[in-house]
Structure formats: C-alpha cells, structure tokens
Specification:
alpha/beta, four-stranded mixed beta sheet, 14 helices
C-alpha cells in the first residue's frame, strides 16, 4: 500500500478503491492536458503560417498593382515584349534584299600638305552658308598707311533654325616709312583655336541638356542642312565649353554652400567605366537647392554613400531639408544644422497604399490635403515668413496632432510588410522632421522644388542612356546646375548661355557673380 493511500485511509477520508479511481482520472487528465497543449501549439504555428501567407499575399498584390501602374499607367509608356506563341497579323514590313552596290576604283594626286601629323586642322566651312562680314580696322592711326592684304577668320554660328557664318576680315596696313605692319585685332572667342561661336555652342548644350537630344542626333540634324560636323568634334567643343565655365561653377557651389537653408536630394546617372566593359556604373548626382537665393547645384559622385554629402556640406550651417534616406541621419545630431523632412515623400507612401488599404490611406491623404491647402493659402495671400508661421500654428498644428495620434493607434493593427504598414512606419519614424517646418516660416512643407530640378536628368537619361565616363558626368552636373538655376529664375537658357560663353573669356574673375543666371 502506498504512503499517500495509507494517509487518506488513516484519516478516514477515502477508500482504497476511490483512491485508485482518483489517481487514474488524474493521469487521464494530465494526458488530455498534454494533448491539448500539443494541439494548441499546432494551431499557434498554423496561425503564424496563415499570418505569414496573408502578409506575402498582400505584398504580392501590391507588387502586382505597382506593375500594372508601370505598364498601363498614363504617366509613361512601356514596351511589352510579344508572346512567341501569339499569332502574327501579317503587318510586319517585308525584308527587302538590297542589291550589291557596284564599285569602281578612283585614283588622284594631291599636293603634299605642310601640316604636321597630329596637329589640329580647322574644318572648312561650307561656302553656301550666308556670311555676315565684320571689318576690323587696326586700333593704331593708319593715316598714310597702305593696305597690303587681309587675314580672314570664319566662325560657324547658329541662330534658332538657321546656320550662318560670321566672317571677320582684319585689314592689314603697312607704314612704308616706319616699315611697320598693323592689323585689326580679333575679339575673344569661346574656343580660341576653334571655329565654333558662342551661339552654336550654346545651342549644342541646350539641345542636349534641355531638349534631351544626344550629340549624335544633332549631327544627323546638321547633315540635313549640309553641315557635316563629326561627333568627336562636338564632344571636343563640349569639353572646351565646360572648361571655360568651371570658374563660374565653383562660384555657384560657393554661394550654395554659404546659404543657411538647403534642400538636398539625389538621382542616379549611368556612366561608362573601364572597370565594367560592356556595362555601366551607377553614379549619382547629388542636388542641393537654396530656396532663398534660388540657386541649384549638382554634385556628381561615384556612389550613393555618405561621403558625398559629408564633403559637400562640411562647412554648411543652417536648415537642411531631405527625404528619409539614412545617409542624412547624421545631420540630426550635428551642431549648427537643423534637419527637416519632406511631407511629399510621406504622402507618396500613402498614395501607393490605396490599393492595399483604401480606407486608412484616404484618411491620411485627406489630412495631408488640409496641410497643403494651408500652404496654398499662405502663397496666394503673399504672407511673410512670420505670418506663414502663425497661419501654420493656427491651421496645420491641430491637423498634425490629430494625425499623429491616429497613426499610432492604427500601427499595431496593420501588417508591417503591407504598403499601409510601411507608410505608417516611415511617417512615424520621421515625424519630428516632418512636423518641424511649422516652427519656421522660411522652410517649405516639402522639397518638391528640388525634385523639379532633378526631373530633366530623369528624362535625359532615357534618351542618351549614359553620361560617358566619370569626367563627362561631372561636366553634365555643371551644365545641369546652370540650366536648373535658369529655370528657377525664369531666365531663357539659350540667350544666357550664349552671352556667358561670349563674355567669360574677358570677364574679371572677381566679378563672376554678375554672370550667374539670377535676377539682378
């Protein structure tokens, strides 16, 4: 007899049979509890699997929605490859076999040139082009002098829709008594030893970086006007023009760095490198915009790492407005810099989440619409910075407080990997930066102004595919800086660039500010 059983019987509480029955029931109960625990664990794992599958399903649904936008959306056209099994409609053009061309051998003789091998040779300008002749007399007093000849220099020029040649005829005189010869002095040209005028150079650059026409397409256009210019010649003119504009670009960079309020963003640009033959390297244009001075600066870097902004903004002190890219996080704690966020980037997250969770996404978008209505009201009324700050405190602050409280309540109820979950996480993670703008009337609600400057780069890279080597990408950054500043200040870029290329050779380096495309 077991000890427990003797104790119960000694006290007269239970019989032996009852004790054994109770013990058996206890064992069965433990077995049932163990079985239920196993079932509970199974259902828990099943619930976790269901939750994972639901999250993956939502992810794939939003990926599908995004692909549909890319393919069928109205913002851009996409080329979709044809299905090999699809029947042909018979509308394809027939392949015409070209007959072999007859060839003949031609021999001729020519005078041996005195030009040394490897030296630059000026292109002969077509004779059918109109000539605008400029007669240049010597600066010396030519009284009593006899004309003995002239030296002709021809510069290929361009006005919209028309090529022409500016012909500079420098008259030469001799003083018989003094045995002295004088000649008119040429004006300065953008490329001293070239025959491309400032108007033509400006047209080439504007056509590529504003109208997005690669140089090879411009060569094709010129041929239709019987102007045969090699693409290598145009590339050389481009390099020479950029070299001429470098001091002005450095002045622009200096003024942007000296601003106390900057917007920053970045955009990729493919470049060709020797390290990747047959493919391209992804470089980046880091863009900095000063809203108060209305100056834009593109700074090319080989990568998207933190080194780019660290170097450019090393001496910067003031207000910096960016998106949520983590390369900018360091400026949250840097002395002398106040970091602001971009509401447009946050809004875009919820715009993309409408297919995933329309109700929550529309709720946030409606509140953000009120914030932007306040900004529109301030702009339409022409409020000062201080007045805009007061208007934001009155109208925008309550909306932001309500929105923050609502998002914190909703976050635990959404799947983290869903579009709406990512939108809520992104926005709440940057909330302090995003709402800091209401404390300063100078700061904008977003950095859309800088995105407008980046848009030409996105359009251009679709046309000319890559920027060339790293040096060409930096030269492109220089031109984009000038043309972006022209756009912001409503300055006609072709006229400005032609004027600068014509004047900068003789312009004082101490007064380069006068040449920047800003309102004087």
């Amino acid at each position: 007899m077991q000890k427990g059983q003797k104790t119960y019987q000694a006290n007269g509480l239970i019989s032996e049979e009852a004790y054994l029955l109770l013990k058996k029931e206890n064992i069965e109960l433990k077995e049932k509890i163990a079985a239920l625990s196993q079932e509970l664990l199974f259902f828990k794992e099943l619930a976790e699997n269901v939750s994972t599958v639901r999250a993956e399903l939502l992810y794939y649904k939003q990926e599908l929605a995004q692909l549909k936008r890319m393919i069928f959306g109205s913002k851009s056209e996409r080329h979709i490859g044809t299905d090999p099994g699809q029947l042909s409609l018979g509308l394809d053009a027939e392949t015409v076999v070209q007959p072999e061309k007859e060839t003949e051998q031609i021999t001729y003789t020519r005078d041996k040139s005195d030009i040394k091998k490897g030296s630059a040779v000026r292109m002969v300008l077509p004779s059918h082009l109109h000539r605008e002749e400029h007669i240049i007399e010597p600066e010396e007093d030519i009284t009593g002098a006899r004309k003995i000849g002239e030296v002709v220099t021809e510069i290929l020029e361009y006005t919209p829709g028309k090529f022409y040649v500016e012909k500079y005829v420098r008259l030469k005189y001799v003083f018989p008594k003094e045995e002295k010869i004088v000649i008119g002095e040429l004006p300065s040209f953008p490329i001293p030893r070239g025959n491309a005028g400032s108007g033509l150079l400006a047209h080439l650059l504007i056509s590529k970086f504003v109208d997005h026409l690669p140089f090879y397409r411009q060569v094709q256009q010129f041929k239709r006007q019987d102007i045969d210019i090699a693409e290598s010649t145009i590339s050389g003119w481009f390099t020479a023009s950029c070299r001429l504009l470098e001091p002005l670009y450095e002045k622009l960079v200096s003024k942007v760095r000296g601003s106390n309020y900057l917007m920053a963003d970045e955009t990729p640009i493919p470049v060709q490198t020797k390290d990747k033959p047959g493919s391209t390297h992804k470089g980046y244009h880091w863009v900095y915009y000063s809203p108060l001075e209305k100056l834009v600066c593109f700074d090319y870097r080989k990568g998207r790492g933190r080194a780019g902004p660290d170097e450019f903004l090393e001496s910067f002190r003031g207000m910096l407005q960016t998106d949520g890219y983590n390369a900018y996080d360091i400026y949250e704690k840097k002395d002398g810099i106040t970091l602001f966020g971009c509401m447009a980037h946050a809004r875009r997250k919820f715009e993309n989440a409408k297919d995933n969770d329309p109700q929550r996404a529309e709720y946030v978008l409606e509140r953000m619409r009120k914030l932007y209505m306040t900004e529109c009201e301030a702009k339409e009324k022409g409020l000062t910075f201080e007045q805009r700050k007061e208007l934001r405190a009155e109208q925008s602050l309550p909306v932001l407080q309500e929105l923050e409280k609502w998002m914190k309540e909703q976050l635990p109820d959404v799947l983290p990997k869903s579009s709406i979950g990512q939108a809520l996480t992104y926005t709440l993670g940057l909330w302090n930066r995003l709402t800091r703008y209401i404390e300063n009337g100078q700061v904008e609600i977003d950095n859309n102004l800088i995105e407008n400057s980046i848009r030409p780069v996105a359009i251009g890279r679709k046309n000319y595919l890559f920027a060339g080597p790293h040096e060409a990408a930096q030269q492109a950054a220089m031109i984009y800086s000038f043309l972006g500043t022209c756009k912001i200040n409503n300055i006609e870029p072709l006229a400005w660039l032609k004027d600068v290329l014509q004047r900068i050779q003789d312009h004082s380096i101490q007064k380069l500010d006068e040449l920047l495309p800003t309102k004087k």
